[in-house]
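Researcher: Batch entry, complex prediction.
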Amino acid sequence: MKDRFDVLLQVLAGFLILFMVVSLFYLYVAVGRTWDLVVEALFSERVVQALIVSVSSSTLVGLIAVAAVIPTAYVLTYKEFRFKGLLETLLIEFPQTFPPATVGLVYLLMLGPGSPINIAYTYPAVIVAKFYVSTPFAMSFTLRRFQEIHRSGLDTIARTLGSRTRHLLLWILLPLSVKDLVAGFSLTWARAMGEVAATLIFAGAIPGRTEIFPAVVYLTSRENPQVALAASVIAAFLSIGALLFFKWIARER
Amino acid sequence: MMTKLRIEEVTKRYGKVTALDRVSLDVRSGEFLVVMGPSGCGKTTLLLILLGVLKPDSGHLYLDGNLIDDLSVEDRNFGYVPQDFGLFPHMTAHDNIAFGLRVRNLPKDEVEHRVEELFSLVELQGIEQRKPAELSGGQRQRVSLARAMAVQPSLLLLDEPLSNVDEATKSEIRQKLKETVKRAGVTTVCVLHEPGDALVLGDRIAVMYAGKILQIGTVQNLLEEPESEIVTRLLASHLFRWGERASPES
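Model: Structure tokens for the complex:
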């Protein structure tokens, strides 16, 4: 006998899957008829420059994020202090829900014209804006893993064997967290690739310097939709390709 | 006999629950002491306090007569074999055993020499390059034991060492465990809930119940003169068998 509720759940799941997949595939449908125009736009200076800015800044952000979250995850796992829960929220959940446009504005006021350090509309501004928005991914993966290792008691055993913090980090915590660091890096990277609002407001969109991929899409979508489409196609390709690649690395380990 | 470890009036509370109630115990040099009791009796808390992971609310610990209350986990030099054996999953059996020696920065030759000796002590030659996932429960237990003994600990702490080994091979593993520890001559405190295991392993047994030590003595003492109703009850099935036998299982 067929289980009707099972069928119902499958149908409902189908709606969500359809919605997510169709949205992505429609991009290729939209490109369809004007493929040669898109190909031409692909090699235009503006798109190539935006590609370089986006990929380089996202990679840099991913690397800095991984390096920065390791000591932070250590402190959050091993030190007891007041308001630790609040601090975790501020480092992980809050940046993901705080409107990125507001983040850009905050940095523009804090590190923009009129402040002692002014990096507005520069490449470092791209890094800073993307970093705030995307680091929580690396943070949550690494913290969750460190806490898991702590609960397992492996760190206590290492300490009974004489481990100092250095051994604990280099011989136990990091080797056991490789997958999570790779996953954290990849999601941070992907989020940084997609981030636009904070970067636009704080770093602007100077072609070849601070103009990123999604900014090209946004700024050209009206007067030159072919360029916008070209940029979108590459962005989608890159993100899916990169995510699959990172997942593969994580599984191989 | 010399006292190796003195536990003096140790109390630990979790909120309103008293896990350890003024526990005092002397562990003699070279003996295998079993702390036996049902789950929740406080024996794990006692073990964590000995390790230095938990701080007692009051009471003191002395090792060879020296106060060690403020000594950190890494400075106590106590070997520890946890219930799940706690092998580092990313390291081979060899590297697990070498861990404590490498932390101490010993020369490579010496590390290799010591590790080799330990493999032969626990009779595990041939599995040096295997990862923990490729070992049986009994093998994991012995690797964990060898790793704890590698650093020549002043005290060996075993937490339910038989709960994760096959029932079919348990009595053999139990015998091996005792032999190995005795051969190494290390003073051992072993926490157990199963009276059958306690009677075989322990030179002396401390019976623990509801945060208190009810009685401490040799197998013979406990079986012939149980000092309380609870001790009698915990050992009931073994008392019956004891009556039929001339000498204790050893």
